Amino acid sequence: MTGDQIFQLFAYLLPSVITGAIAFYFFRMHTNNEEGRRRFLLHKDSQASTLPIRLQAYERMALFLERISIPSLVLRVKPNSSDKTAYENLLIKSIENEFEHNLSQQIYLTDELWNVIKAAKSATIQMIRKAGMSETDSADKLREDVLTETMDKQNPSATALAFVKKEISELW
């Protein structure tokens, strides 16, 4: 083969190689775009089906936080006897029961929100225990002490509820 023939062969092959490379590039770009579109549609469909469930989880956690807020808890849970320790344990048991009832909702919430809710629960229990250490002698007096203890301070449930509302607003 002579130099002219090689050059001629190269001249014929060059456009077909360039055309093939461009076709490969566009085919690859199209395939990646289709894959991204399918992912987007799947994500959109899953969002449409999971959003109501997530909103229900947020609603249940808001209800939980309202139920364990000290004023609501003390009004709802009445003492069975005049024993202040029994009433303190009854309040704590009520909080724990509410928490266990809503435990499964954590899979629909962010880790940050779940930690805030657990912290609110723990802070509420600590406030009850702190009031229980007072010199009171009856369950009714403990109720008053728990309420007056929380009058001056920010309710942990209110803080957590504000966080829930903030997170829900980010969904839209």
Description of the molecule:
By secondary structure, the chain is an all-alpha fold. The chain contains 6 helices and no strands. It has helices at residues 3-68, 70-76, 84-101, 111-132, 139-151, 156-171. Helix 3 runs antiparallel to helix 4 (111-132). The termini are far apart.
Element-by-element helix/strand order:
HHHHHH
The residue ranges in which pLDDT falls below 50 over 5 or more consecutive positions are none
Shape: rod-shaped
Number of strands: 0
Q: What separation lies between the terminal Cα atoms?
A: 71 Å
Alpha plus pi helix count: 6
In what range is the share of β-strand residues?
A: under 5%
- Secondary structure category: mainly alpha
CA radius of gyration is 32 Å
State the helicity in percent bands: over 70%
What number is the mean pLDDT? 90
Largest sheet features? none
Quick summary of this structure?
The chain has about 170 residues and is mostly helical.
Which terms would index this structure?
mainly alpha, 6 helices, 0% strand, rod-shaped
Fold topology:
Layout: H1 3-68, H2 70-76, H3 84-101, H4 111-132, H5 139-151, H6 156-171
Helix pairs in contact: 1-6, 3-4, 3-5, 4-5, 4-6
